[in-house]
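Good morning C.,

I know you're traveling, so I'll keep this short. The sequence:
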Amino acid sequence: MTRLGVIADDFTGATDIASFLVQNGLSTLQFNGVPQQHDAPTTQAIVISLKTRSCGIEQAVQQSLAALKWLQEQGCDRFYFKYCSTFDSTEKGNIGPVTDALLAELGETQTAICPALPVNGRTVYLGHLFVGEQLLSDSGMRHHPVTPMTDSNLLRLMEKQATGKAGLISAAVLDQGARAVAKKLAELKSQGVNYVVLDTLNEQHLLTQGEALADMRLVTGGSGLAIGLARQWATGNGARGEAEAAGRPQGERAVVISGSCSQMTNKQVNAYRQQAPSQEVDVARCLDLDKAGDYAQQLCDWVAANSDQPLAPLLYATADAQALQAIQQQYGAQRSSEAVENLFAAVTRELKRRGWQRFIVAGGETSGVVAQSLDVTAFHIGPSVSPGVPWVRDIDQPLSLVLKSGNFGDEQFFRRAQTEFSL
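The tokens, ready to paste straight into the viewer:
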């Protein structure tokens, strides 16, 4: 049986791909960081979430190789480097350097580059990444505070970051089927192409890619490619239902925490504020280290006082591009971000101590902070609220979480996470 090992560069990206693996037939466990234990429970896929999207290149490579080594020890024979469907990175990394390191460690010379997720509007045409009907470089990602994406050409991006050569398999070839794709892969390999960018316009293209790439030891991309690969590797029937049942939400009392400043999360926060109690985080109070602990306690008291409503209370540090720029200019980008993360960590720990067991979280960095503060090390994947965003349940504690990447979900996401699933 093929056993898949996934190395994800952030927390919500890990739950994103884990949900698609479960939905398409693979039993899946997710770990927060490289596990300390020697043996993983029996499962067809293992996902390790790292925090390597925007850290230093050397650190990203080191952690990714450590994850690869542990996955190999668990008997994994296929590997997947998962990054964001908007290819979040800089001109120097970290996607290219990590890809090179993984290829070298596995003794391979070629891999696939496929960030596309058509169901969420991420498509690739002639090697250019689109967000909806816009080129990536024209989308809101061009204003990202950490990894502003000002180029949409994936071949150019890979060759700037990595050491090898990039090539393209066009949509016209994808439309001819898996054999045509496999033939083109072999042709590109003979030409010394290391990074094969695959055009992707629809789910059928993902299924074709899954068939053509099933024997490739290392693939890289967003979560979309997992749809086709999982269907190729899944064995037996009923795996989806069994896996989703294991991760179905449970627990008492819920809270919504939003730290993302993406365009979609701004819309989601604005919509939810009309439906439920909400409280904006005061960055200045977060930065007052002598009183930050008191502020966290006050926010927890506010959550408790507003938890008798039909929908869970919302704490948010979400801001639009103009407001975020003003905050960063006044307080410093890194300093203000770290202060908010530390506040959310303190709030999360205190709410857990007070008995909160359901956490709905928006933002990759915020999700990682919340999971770490809750001492979540591994969890089962449950039913999806939106494509790529499932409920998950801790394997050791009575805790259930939704961990949403910034731009995922529709405007009513926070409400639906609560009303569409029995708890």
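Safe travels,
E.
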